Amino acid sequence: MRLYSNEIVFRGHPDKVCDQISDALLDEYLKGDKNSRCGIETCGGKGIIFITGEVTSKTCVNVEKTVKRVLMDIGYDTNYTIINNIGLQSSDISLGTNNKVMGAGDQGMMFGYACNDNKYYLPTSMIILQELSYEYNKLIKKDKRFKPDGKAQITGYYDKDNKITKIKTFTVSYQNTELERDETDKIIKNLVVSICNKYNLEIENFLINPTGKFEIGGFVADAGLTGRKIVVDNYHSFSSVGGGAFSGKDPTKVDRSAAYKARLIAVDYLKKYNLKWCEVQISYAIGIRKPLSISIMSDIGEIKVDNKLYKECEPKNIIKDLDLLNKCYYDTAKYGHFNYLNE
């Protein structure tokens, strides 16, 4: 047995708020022009939300209105100075990503992962935390003692096959009014236990707001930045992590679109070869259509990759296969991009 930990952040965590703002803006550009080229970054903190990055699009988006819509949906007020610093995407990049060439919008490596832990082909601890985040979001809508910011972490016992057998410590830090803490803590514990019971997992210890108090949160207590939770978004460290953030980027940039494709490949190969786990890496060079490499590793070793798969992983084919130009990114930004609730 070994101890291993994974974590998630709730929708109201400042970094995840920034992810959602970047993705909501991306959605608006794609709705107006499916060929929009976007790389939108958000930084927030201390009364200011700063939007920057690059966009080339035939449509106009009301940035301030979109930002405030996201804040209101999460449960925050909208009393922020919103600075729009978005510029045009470099014409040098468009040389390799136009509809004629349709090369990758950036260089880099993307990972996809699947395991046989459960019917979702994801690590059980990851699913539990996503369900908790999902339920916590509903909780703050109906009980004003709970506030949007927060995060959770599982430290579990794992066997030789990397399957969790028991939870040593379940840590939850949740923002709240600090009124009736005994009762709100009990609600959190009961929620966690009910989720873990579905997966037959016992919890030895709880850590609830370990500092003793969590009343001040969000952009008042912390700063947020798009893409700073890429490990949360990429299998909670159970798999390797690519170098690029997902949010705010159109599908040609491959950071997210190729990661989604790698996930689908991993699930397919897991079933095809009856694997315990499968990890897929795809790498690209900017402006080049064909991936530089595709690597598939598993519990039985490396799996041979044929040329057909290289063709499937060209950006134009990924976008066509996954219908990413019409996909709503905003929902998947809320709880982690490989949220099985939305797959």
How does this structure look, described?
By secondary structure, the chain is an alpha+beta fold. It has three domains: 2-9 and 123-217, GMP Synthetase, Chain A, domain 3, CATH 3.30.300.10; 16-90, GMP Synthetase, Chain A, domain 3, CATH 3.30.300.10; 108-118 and 228-342, 2-Layer Sandwich (GMP Synthetase, Chain A, domain 3), CATH 3.30.300. Helix content is 35%, strand content 27%. It is built from eleven helices and twelve strands. It has helices spanning 14-32, 63-74, 91-97, 124-142, 181-198, 218-221, 230-233, 257-273, 307-312, 315-322, 329-335, and strands at 2-9, 37-45, 48-56, 81-87, 108-115, 146-158, 164-176, 203-208, 224-225, 277-284, 293-298, 301-303. A four-stranded mixed sheet has the order 1-6-7-8, covered by helices on one side. A hairpin with a 5-residue loop joins strand 6 and strand 7. Helix 1 packs across helix 2 (63-74) and helix 8 (257-273) crosses helix 10. It is flat and about 60 Å long. The protein starts with a strand and ends in an 8-residue tail after the last helix. The mean pLDDT is 91.
